[in-house]
Amino acid sequence: MEMVKRPRRLRGSEVLRKMVRETRMDKSSLVYPIFVKEGRGIREEIPTMPGQYRYSVDTMEEKLEALADAGVGSVMFFGIPDHKDEVGSGAYDENGIVQKALRKAKEQFPDLYLITDVCMCEYTSHGHCGVLCGHDVDNDRTLDLLAKTALSHVEAGADMVAPSDMMDGRIRALRECLDAHHHYTTPIMSYAVKYASSFYGPFRDAAGSAPSFGDRKTYQMDYHNIREGIKEALLDEEEGADIIMVKPAMSFLDLVVKVKEAVHTPVAAYSVSGEYAMVKAAAKLGYVDEDKIVCEMAASAYRAGTDIYITYYAQELAKFMDEGRIG
């Protein structure tokens, strides 16, 4: 049989396969989410996320150092306060847990790039992502508090802010507030395409942020919808978002593809707590090879168009990249 075209020619060796690889990954694109809480001497393993911990400000140094040594240059902070109230005042308190963690991290690791999650759900007594009006979140009243939170983070040392609340107009509110205080160069990474997903369950356990009533479907998106996600991405880009995020990652890679085609900003994908927990559970039972699954999940996100990958496996992926197992 005479065949001119033989695709297998380019699969003959490891060197050749890497040479013609279409999707390439780099450690600089990895972001590690870290949970910080009030107190001292705290390093609590999260039951639903084996291998992940809640740290106090004095114990997070060891983890940040391990990440830096592995080549993971960016972290995203999530705060767990001692006190919660109706308006989530701990989120924008200059001595709040994230603000204290930022100052310490900036002092100890000046080369780490510090990103903060901007939301109210960890700080409100009701667990919703903003100020309530009855049993619904008051969108416009919440915007001022989100802007105050972002500003307090930047003034404490954040290099980038990432609003995850899904309030309409919050990117413009943050941009105007930051610019008014001369933080023109601080980027905003918007959780623009964020779905109401069951994949968030372990995170809510980790951060103590489950709503005390109802759900978040009036502000997070219906997971059946594609065009709505594109609309949200374009609106946030227009309002001043510098990076557009899709969340979750694994089950929404079709949205990563669509968003990548639609916007003119870098695209991030967040491999969320439920994805992490499922891999850990299956690996513990011996059903899957954890390392190989983690590499395959990451490659699929980058293949779909992800420029920035937020993952609890950032440290492991950096090691796999060094070993040539992925990248």
Automatic annotation (TrEMBL):
Keywords: Heme biosynthesis, Lyase, Magnesium, Metal-binding, Porphyrin biosynthesis, Zinc. It catalyses: 2 5-aminolevulinate = porphobilinogen + 2 H2O + H(+). InterPro entries: ALAD, Aldolase_TIM. Mg(2+) binds at residue 232. 5-aminolevulinate 2 binds at residues 273, 312. One of its GO terms (cellular component) is cytosol. The keyword Magnesium applies. SUPFAM superfamilies: Aldolase. Its EC number is 4.2.1.24. Catalyzes an early step in the biosynthesis of tetrapyrroles. Binds two molecules of 5-aminolevulinate per subunit, each at a distinct site, and catalyzes their condensation to form porphobilinogen. Belongs to the ALAD family. Homooctamer. This is Delta-aminolevulinic acid dehydratase.
